[in-house]
């Protein structure tokens, strides 16, 4: 039997690489539609996919974007995610995590910048939107202070304390100390209810009374205490205080 020598194919003889074809015409791709019709024309999945840029082997970027939204339950909850929340999400490595977190922080700073331009007492809706973005989807209670100047413009916002799903310790003395430190003339405080229900508890009412009376001793006005839920807000000031 004669041996047959099989020669390797030359580079020129290699089969051509087949590149996947897009699922829809270029003009219908999210990026092109965003540039032509604006971001409002895109779904939440498409917006997240544009930020991510690429998917995984066997899972395109839209699959990854969809699973990311399903994991957090909503776009708002995803925007409220921490680096730890995003860690371990399949298809979202360090570079994409950093990109998502940067966009989230840009949104928060843009809202804060908008609030600094005018008295907050004149724009309660903007205040509620800002607070909902900050803490509305947190799985634990967070207490936030908005320190205002004499014209009711935002000086800074700070997280005062953080608790569990149903409990949190807030110290009025620490709030007074920070108020004096930033030279605030008035405050708006807020905390979230992870359950989504915004009805204030007895301890919420007691804290509001104590905080309002304590701040009055240093001639600082507590403008409002807001309880932030997933889709609604309770205002102590609008309700006539405790």
From TrEMBL:
Report any Pfam family annotated for this entry. UPF0758_N
Per the record, the domain of life is Bacteria
**Which segments carry the region annotation Disordered?**
1-26
The UniProt keyword set, sorted, is:
Hydrolase, Metal-binding, Metalloprotease, Protease, Zinc
Q: Which ranges carry the MPN domain? A: 120-242
Q: Which NCBIfam families does this chain map to? A: PRK00024.1, radc
Question: What is this protein's record name?
Answer: JAB domain-containing protein
Native organism: Paraburkholderia terrae
């Amino acid at each position: 039997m004669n041996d047959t020598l099989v020669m390797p194919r030359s580079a020129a003889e290699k089969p051509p690489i087949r590149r996947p074809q897009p699922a829809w015409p270029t003009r219908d791709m999210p990026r092109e539609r965003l540039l032509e019709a604006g971001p409002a024309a895109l779904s939440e999945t498409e917006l997240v996919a544009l930020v991510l840029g690429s998917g995984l082997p066997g899972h395109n970027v839209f699959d990854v974007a969809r699973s990311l939204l399903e994991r957090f339950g909503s776009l708002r909850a995803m925007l409220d995610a921490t680096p730890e929340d995003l860690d371990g999400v399949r298809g979202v490595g360090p570079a994409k995590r950093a990109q998502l977190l940067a966009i989230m922080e840009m949104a928060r700073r843009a809202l804060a910048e908008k609030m600094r331009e005018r008295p907050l007492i004149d724009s309660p809706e903007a205040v509620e939107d800002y607070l909902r973005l900050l803490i509305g989807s947190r799985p634990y209670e967070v207490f936030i202070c908005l320190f205002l100047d004499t014209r009711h413009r935002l000086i800074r916002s700070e997280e005062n304390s953080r608790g569990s799903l149903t409990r949190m310790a807030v110290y009025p003395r620490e709030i007074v100390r920070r108020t004096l430190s930033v030279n605030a003339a008035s405050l708006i405080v807020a905390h979230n209810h992870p359950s989504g229900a915004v009805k204030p508890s007895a301890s919420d009412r007691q804290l509001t009374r104590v905080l309002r009376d304590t701040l009055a001793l240093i001639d600082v006005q507590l403008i409002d205490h807001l309880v932030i839920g997933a889709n609604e807000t309770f205002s102590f000031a609008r309700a006539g205080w405790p």
